[in-house]
Q: What sequence folds into this?
């Protein structure tokens, strides 16, 4: 099979083998990797972080983006990896699993990443929050570069503290609201009634 002959190989078979290689050759350094195979997703579970791999042959990048947005928005994963198989050199007419894995290890990829942090859009209302995941694809990278970028995105996702800034933002909003209530001389008891806020003693009566 020529360099372009791999285009006849089923995407599903390539996707599962790619996930196996990622688990075996790179991600295992971060912890135990559990591979769950199913259509249309290949799902990796890495220390409780769910990672979906969406992989297509070239020319379907927008479909990859839409699919990953849907996976993240539906809560199916924490990280979605978008992969285009840019070039694989499969020389055998009837390639074995070993042939395909070898081609994947020596192949070239266009790769993009999305995380739940990107979909939340925290940068729109949290001052100082800057997403660190590149929004565009890494083009024509080799397998080891793929693994390096993948590990970087994983570490960013698990290390980013979004709880503290969110809590601090809520505190500021509540403090501003409390000051506004006091400055306008509102009837606190009436306000509690309107907002259906009750103390423990009121709930028991």
A:
């Amino acid at each position: 099979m020529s360099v372009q002959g791999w285009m006849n190989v089923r995407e599903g078979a390539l996707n599962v083998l790619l996930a196996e290689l990622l688990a075996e050759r790179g991600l295992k350094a971060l912890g135990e990797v559990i591979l769950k195979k199913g259509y249309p997703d290949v799902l990796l579970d890495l220390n409780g972080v769910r990672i979906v791999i969406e992989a297509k042959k070239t020319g379907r990048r927008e479909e990859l983006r839409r699919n990953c947005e849907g996976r993240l928005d539906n809560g199916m994963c924490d990280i979605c990896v978008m992969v285009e198989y840019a070039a694989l050199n499969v020389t055998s007419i009837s390639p074995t699993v070993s042939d395909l894995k070898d081609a994947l290890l020596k192949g070239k990829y266009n790769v993009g990443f999305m995380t739940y942090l990107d979909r939340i859009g925290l940068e729109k209302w949290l001052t100082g929050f800057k997403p660190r995941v590149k929004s565009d694809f890494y083009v024509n990278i080799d397998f080891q570069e793929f693994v390096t970028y993948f590990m970087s995105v994983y570490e960013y996702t698990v290390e980013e503290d979004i709880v503290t800034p969110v809590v601090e933002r809520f505190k500021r909003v509540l403090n501003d609201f409390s000051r506004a209530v006091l400055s306008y001389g509102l009837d606190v008891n009436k306000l509690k009634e309107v907002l259906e806020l009750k103390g423990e003693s009121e709930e028991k009566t």
Q: What stands out?
A: The CA atoms of residues 72 and 116 lie 6 Å apart.
